[in-house]
């Protein structure tokens, strides 16, 4: 039904423009005449150019490159976390355990056994140990999933926290695998003459370590993101979301709740394992304590701040929260002017005040609370709201002409 000029909404008379915007014709106009074009080949080519050009333009900026590499690695894990929590609605704080499983799988399969060392190492190619890390973590997820997902709510969270503590105990005591409390080194990928630990040349062009890792992780992240997006748009993805929204209704529609939850758990665990392999390889060294509850909490913050049930939100949140510690370092004195904008924060050991690491954790908590209270949809919801308002504004101007 069309609205007339004299009709009112909430007691306010509609202007000519407002009347037109609310008519079926205007809504059809917005659907058939996209003011902001849908991403097609032009946008895809533009993004490809940006992704490829970034490490070439900033080849000498180690800070930016390391932020980009860590951000993309974390994005792979946050996609897995979003499958389980954002799309399927299963709360978990056990992500750190599966990152550790993937990391030590990579260490054993890709590492080397030196004389006088008890550490296991098979010296496999990274073309094998990266997917193997995902496979082993996924298999463990398939074993743990049916047990953990019998629980719900707070009990499920406590079960996944317990899984992390069991993992920390195992990682600290399996010294042949993890190196014990002292930690162990992790393998860097090698492909022909390309040594990711030191850099290498492709033809006449030399790429440093950060550039090589950047391209490697980008080649992994893009297909993973497309895979997750396609799965979520498929029948399986709709089953995940049905379980999240209302389990009873999903079961009435013939969805097997246990199988759907376990499938989400396996997907999430496998991507976490791959992330752990890439993360530890880029760090080159890690201790068992790295894979604790704090790491799991960071992934929870990433998907909430970036956007639950959103592929783009997972990537945005990962990049933002990966850049946050470096931003804190910059604002607390590591800048050309040597100005500390937060006098109560210090990076000096033993000095009075908050340490930069503790301040980072406080900022994580603050952003998490702010987004949960004021914008549960995360950054991606803010972007979509701005996009819709811009579409309406541009459509209004066109209708007035």
DSSP strand tally: 10
Report how far the terminal alpha carbons are from each other.
Answer: 24 Å
Instruction: Report strand order across the widest sheet.
Output: 1-2
Sketch the topology as an H/E string, one letter per element: EEHHHHHHHHEEEEEHHHHEHHEEHH
Q: Radius of gyration, Cα only, in angstroms?
A: 24 Å
Class of secondary structure makeup: mainly alpha
Backbone shape: globular
Helical amount: 55-70%
* Poorly predicted tracts of residues: 1-14, 32-37
Number of helices: 16
Q: Main β-sheet, in a few words?
A: 2 strands, antiparallel
Kindly estimate the percentage of residues that lie in beta strands according to DSSP: 5-15%
Mean of pLDDT: 87
Can you summarize this structure?
With 401 residues, the chain is mainly alpha-helical. It contains 16 helices and ten strands.
Reconstruct the topology from this structure.
Layout: E1 8-9, E2 12-13, H1 16-21, H2 24-32, H3 41-57, H4 62-87, H5 95-110, H6 126-148, H7 153-173, H8 175-178, E3 184-185, E4 190-191, E5 194-195, E6 200-202, E7 205-207, H9 209-232, H10 235-245, H11 247-252, H12 257-283, E8 285-286, H13 293-306, H14 311-331, E9 345-346, E10 354-355, H15 356-374, H16 378-400
Parallel strand pairs: 9-10
Antiparallel strand pairs: 1-2, 3-8, 4-5, 6-7
Helix pairs in contact: 3-9, 4-9, 4-12, 4-13, 4-14, 5-6, 5-7, 5-12, 6-12, 10-12, 13-14, 13-15, 14-15
Give your account of this protein's structure:
It is a single chain. The strands form five sheets. Strands 1-2 form a two-stranded antiparallel ribbon. A two-stranded antiparallel sheet has the order 3-8. The protein has a two-stranded antiparallel sheet with strand order 4-5. It contains 16 helices and ten strands. The longest helix has 27 residues, at 257-283. Residues 1-14 and 32-37 have low confidence and may be disordered. It has helices at residues 16-21, 24-32, 41-57, 62-87, 95-110, 126-148, 153-173, 175-178, 209-232, 235-245, 247-252, 257-283, 293-306, 311-331, 356-374, 378-400; strands at residues 8-9, 12-13, 184-185, 190-191, 194-195, 200-202, 205-207, 285-286, 345-346, 354-355.
